[in-house]
Design a protein that fits this description.
By secondary structure, the chain is mainly alpha-helical. The chain has 5 helices and no strands. It has one domain. 21% of the residues are buried.
Length: 121
């Protein structure tokens, strides 16, 4: 599950990098600072968008593949035995899903910020 959350945060970070080139100068100008240097990120925006979407897709794929049915160990089973498949903790899976959906929603807002930022600032 840690790899899934790490991939989700990577997608959010890439979405933030995508937002910097277009919305960053608007935000800085609204507080009275110059944001001209941030427009140098503009050629990199498509790369940030692809990386963000790719990492979020990877996170959702890992989460989907990680869902194993819950199980109970029998009397003869030893936890961590080589032949035993790991059991999924349903509470942890739900928590990871919630975090991943939150990260995906924030990433989406950042990726489409060039469309809505001029109306806000």
């Amino acid at each position: 599950m840690n790899k899934t959350i790490f991939s989700g945060f990577g997608g959010l970070t890439a979405a933030f990098g995508s937002m910097i080139c277009c919305s960053g100068p608007l935000v800085l100008a609204s507080v009275g600072l110059s944001g001209a240097a941030l427009s140098a990120w503009r050629p990199w925006r498509p790369l940030f968008v692809v990386v963000s979407v790719g990492l979020l897709f990877l996170a959702f794929q890992m989460l989907g593949n990680a869902e194993a049915p819950t199980c109970e160990l029998g009397e003869d089973d030893v936890e961590g035995e080589a032949g035993c498949a790991p059991c999924a903790d349903p509470a942890r899976t739900r928590r990871t899903k919630r975090w991943l959906y939150l990260l995906a929603a924030l990433s989406f807002l950042l990726l489409v910020s060039p469309r809505w930022a001029p109306f806000v600032f």
